[in-house]
Amino acid sequence: MTAMTDDTLPVTPRAIRDEMIAFGIMTALLLIVPLTGVYPFFVMQALCFALLACAFNLLIGYGGLLSFGHAMFLGTAGYITAHALKVWGFTPELGILAGTAGAAGLGVITGVVAIRRQGIYFAMITLALSQLLYFIYLQTPFTHGEDGIQGIPQGYLFGIFNLANPTILYYVILAGFLLGFLLIFRTINSPFGEVLKAIRENEPRAISLGYKTDQYKLLAYILSGTLAGFAGSLKVFVAQNASLTDVHWTMSGEIVLMTLVGGLGTVFGPVVGAFVIIAMQQYLAGFGQWVTVIQGVIFVVCVLTFRRGVIGEIAHYFRRSL
Amino acid sequence: MQALYAQLLVGLINGSFYALLSLGLAVIFGMLNIINFAHGALYMMGAFCAYFLLNVAGIGYWPALIVAPVAVGIFGMILERTMLQWLSGLDHLYGLLLTFGLALIIQGVFQNYFGSSGLPYAIPDELKGGMNLGFMFLPIYRGWVVVFSLVVCLGTWYLIERTRLGANLRAATENPTLVRAFGINVPRMITLTYGLGVGLAALAGVLSAPINQVRPLMGADLIIVVFAVVVIGGMGSIMGSIITGFALGVIEGLTKYFYPEASNTVVFVLMVLVLLVKPSGLTGRAS
Predict the structure, then answer these.
(1) ipTM score of the complex?
(2) CATH, domain A13-317, list 1.10.10, 2.30.29, 1.20.1270, 1.10.3470
(3) For all residues of chain A together, what is the average pLDDT?
(4) Residue A110's closest chain B neighbor by CA?
(5) Contact A296 B287 (CB under 8 A)
C-alpha cells in the first residue's frame, strides 16, 4: 500500500530551520492582523478551523489514519464548553478545560473501538461513530436539538481579559492556536512522532521491531481528538453558539477537505487549507447550495491532479520540508 | 401485535435496501479496492430517474425498474472510466475522498434544483392495495419490495459465485495481472463491475421511490448506516452482506417497536459491539 504522503524527507537541522522560519512568518502575519482592518471574526473562525485541521492532519499525515468523524470532537467540546459557561456559570478557562477534557474522554472511548481496524474501515468506523453521536445530541435535552445552545456569555479569561472585546478575543484565540500548533509540531518531531511515521509506512515492520503499534495509534488518536476539542472550545467564544452543524458529517468532510487542499502530512498545509476554505465559504455564501457542489469539485480536482496540496506542492518544488 | 408486525415489515424493507447497497459496495470494493462514498447519491439518482421517466417521458414503474438502473449504471461506468480508474495503485483512501467529492457534487446539484422536500411517486396500479394475512395487513407493494430485493440479491450471488463470468471476476480480484495473461480484459471487467454495483444502488432507489418519496438527500444518511452494516458484516463474502443487511434491518425494526428512541442508533451501537468482540466483522477473515 502506497502511503498518502510520498515526500518523506528526513528531519534534518535544515528542515527544522525552514519550518521555524515559516512559523515565524506565519506568527508575524497573524499578530498584525487586527492592525490591517481585516474582519477579525473571519480570521478567528479560520484559526479555530486551522487548529482543527492540524489536529486531524496529525492522524492522517503522520499516523496514516483517515478519520471521517473529527466533527464529533469539535461538536462535543463545543457543547460542553457552551453548557458549562451558560448553565453552570464556569469561567472561560474552566469552560475550555471542561470541553477539551470531554473531547479527550471521547477520544479514549471511540479510539479503543476505532483503532481495531485500519485503512478504509477506520474511516467508515469513525464516520459511523460520529453519526451515532449526532443522533444522541439530536435527542438529548441539554443540546437543545435543532436550535443549539445560543447566546453564550464570553466572560473574562483569568478574570482579566474581557473576551467581549474583539481585539482581546482575537489575541486569546491566536494564543490558543499557537499553543496547539506548537504542541503538534513538537509531537511530530519527537521520537513518538517518528514511531508514528514508521507505523504509517510499514506497520508489520514496526510490530516486528517491538513497537506496540496499537498503543501508539491510540495515543495519537486521543491527542488528535483532544486538540480538535480544544479548537471546538475556542470556537464557542467566537461563534457564541454550539449547534448540530458542528457534529454533522458534512463538517467532518470539510475538515478533510481543508487538510487535503493545504497538503496532507505537511506542517503548515492544514492552516493554509483552512483559510482557503473558510474564505471561499465567505465569498461564495450567496451561491447557496452551489457551495456544496464547488467543495465537491475541489475534492475531485485535488484527488485527481493536486494530491500534494498547496504547501505540499511548494515544498516539493523547492525540495524542502514545510 | 399488529404494530410489531408492521415494524418488522418496515425493518425487512429497510433491510432490503441495506442488503442491495452493501452488496454493491462489497462487489465494487472487491474489484476496485474503493469504498464508493457516492453510493448513496447514486441510489438517489435511481429514484430520480424513475421520477423523471414517469413525469417527463410518461414511462411507468415496470420499465423504470430496468431503465433506471441501466442508465445510472452507465453514468457510473463513465465516472469509473474518466476518474476512478486513475486512482489504481494509489492509497485506497483517495478513492474514498474522490467518491465523497462526487457525492457532494451530485447531491448538491439535485438539491439546487429540487430543494430538500420529497417528491411523490405513486405505487403502480398492479401493486396497490393489501392482503389480510390473518395476523396482519400486508400492503402488497411492501411485500413485493422484500421479495424482489431478495431475488435480485440471490441472483447477484449466483452470478458471482456460480457462473463462469463470476469466476473470472473473483479471479481478477485475487490477481489481476495473472487473469490478464489469460486474455481477459480486466479493465473492462472493472468498469462493468462498477456499473453493476451502481446499478444495484439505483435499483434500490427505484424500489424505495414509492415508499420513501424522492428526495435529493435520501441517500446521504442512508449510506452511513450502510457503512456500519458493511463494518459489521465484513466485505469478504457476498452472502454475508445479504444476510447482514436483512438482519440489521429487522433488528432496527424491532428496536422501533420496543425502544423507539434508539432506532436511529441501534445499528451503530451494534457496530461498536461487533468491533469489540470480533474486529474483523462477522463474516470477514482477519486482515
Answers:
(1) 0.89
(2) 1.10.3470
(3) 89
(4) B272
(5) no
